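anyone seen this seq b4? input:
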Amino acid sequence: MALMLSDFDNCYIITDSIPGINTASIGLWLQNGARYESLNEQGYAHFLEHLVFKQTKQHSGAQLSTLFEVMGGHINAETGREMTAFHGLVPQQHAVELLSLFIEMLFQTDFSQSDFKIERDVVLQELAMLKDDPEEALEDFGSEQVWLNHNIGRQILGSRASLNNASFVGMHEYLKTVTRNKKLCIVATGNVDHDSICAACESIPAPKSPIMPNISIPEYSQSNRHLDILAEQKHLLWIMPAVSYNDDLQPAFEIANHIIAGGYDSRLYQVLREQLGLVYSVDSRVDHYSDTGLWFIQTNTENQNLTDTITAIENTMSDLISHGPTEKEIESAALHLQSSMIIARDDLEARMDKLARDIIYTGKIQSLEDQLDALKKVTRDDIQFIIKQAWSSVSHYTAG
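predicted toks r here
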């Protein structure tokens, strides 16, 4: 097993080689997403993710599909608030080929006017589907409200207006801009060879006159709103401010999150489901970005249980703030997270994603040992402090 990092002018390349297995996970990250879009480019990053699969100067869309299919495994792409990723898990003999195709798609794309129109319709259908997913729609709505008037809070898929105003020429120009504004990050885990991965990346051009607009730190805005959407149940969402990926308090947030609603033994799960039977499930998670973060608590319940559910959640949080977590809760949460990290270490795709975020957000790679040690250093006072601070600024949203 060997972890190697090369920092070239055009990209970072990280390989985590594990000889003796038959698979490899390959990922390519662009530092591009909703945060870096201008107002008239809303949704372009996600739209572009679709378009680059259509065709290149060497391969038609059908040929690309066939090449991906014969590799087997799982090949996908995703766009977030700060990153766009292309990644796949394939038999190790296809690792370099898959990476080469990703690079070809980005730097030799040749989508046509017809491709543009068809894929725009596909994205518009994807946007319309949000109305049929109250949980996702409410989370998007809440994120827009707490990050009001900041790009990072905008709908990642864009809007019908911005997509309809997009042009074929404009999307080609947008691609040229985003592939040259910052270095790419390439990560390969599994049975991979570092030199071969580096050789496949030689054709990637170095960034030219980097332009990264809209990078002001978003201000958190507290609010309480209702989203009018057709749903059988009432959907509830609480959002609180959180810290960045590289913040020293990040491990404390993870432990606090697990104590609140991160597992079957969490406070909210035990109260809402096991004791009161008000909900089927309740979830919480923390999203960490380059300089900010959000903390979500989400559940849904029958209309007649709405008031009781809200009261139970608010009372549980108040009790946790007043008395703090028990030492047993902290120990249990830390052990769970440590076990999850160890398990993720054997998951090639999870391992790949963690390495990419480490290098993009911190400029260094955090070892598993360092992650485990960081959890051990979290104190009861740390957890009580961040829960009190976060809940004092909580925003509450409902739908249905």
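The chain has 15 helices and eleven strands. The first strand starts at residue 2 and ends at 7. kinda curious what u guys think
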